[in-house]
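User: Hey, quick favor. My workstation is busy. Could you predict this chain's structure for me?
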Amino acid sequence: MTKTNTGSVRFESVVKKYGEVTALKKLDLSIEPGKLVTLLGPSGCGKTTTLRLIAGLEMATEGSIHIGGEDVTHLTATYRKVSMVFQSYALFPHMTVRENVAYGLTVKSVPKAEAAQKAEQGLELVGLAGFGDRLPSELSGGQQQRGAVARAIVLEPEVLLLDEPLSNLDAKLRRHVREEIRQIQQSLGLTAVYVTHEKEAAMDVSDEIIVMNNDEIAKLGTQHDLYEAPSSAFIADFIGDANLVPCEVEACKDAKATVRVDGQQILIPSNGIGKGAAQMVLRPHALSLQSPDQPGLKGQISYAAYLGKEMQYTVETPVGSLFVISAVRSDPFMQGDSVSVGIVEDQARLVSV
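Assistant: No problem, here it is.
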């Protein structure tokens, strides 16, 4: 199956209201052809509304929506060149897997033989060759989800939409199917929009992540940018694990800030933050545990967990609880131990209060 008609997505000042309630504030958005972009955010942030607006399952109250350069603002789902993979799979239980995959083609009056051939190609692409005669109930959860993906891609959409597609699978299977979806998307050159609240999923498969909050875009960027250089406390806390520590910026020079935290002075990247009260973002790997007589934030371990390849700690300090991840050592710190928490200065990031 060869992909040639992948399309872009563009929102221009799009607003969605339900009566007096605004579900999506004015949104300007551009997704390049062939990219997998993830809409990430907490429940109720507007990400599913955005996806449904692309699909044509909801109509924009204001603004315009373009897919593949065509204005589709007033077109319903039937007339948009998109396919959606739903959270519930939505496979018909009385149809075989092959019939499910071919269903959209038959609705579009594709000849039966051609629909069957494309269905087989789709099943082969998602690793379900030989499963076509089975009923959905005879497949595992991961296989059912791959069947749903096959049903979507045989329609050769300009944009593939995925709405929390793996939430019904266990963690190990989610990771496996997620990788398969990414490989299919890349091999076909599909434009894909993936909605999830799972940070790991977004970090794993995306070309770009759109973080949404309060019915609007909070930040757009690559995984590296969002993780390494968060622009706000919300982004820092939502993308990966983060310790947010109150601090005071005493001086700034040459993109470096002299920062005081719990009576200690450190020099870290300023991140555009000026003098005054701020917050410091400390990722768990940017902290180190040492004996209490060493320089650092003084604290006591309230939780210690051995996870095979690493140790995880919660340390109570004067600036709050800190989550620390460190390599396993022969004499690990234990719950109740007093420690000093060192900060890897070039990995700390400042954000405004």
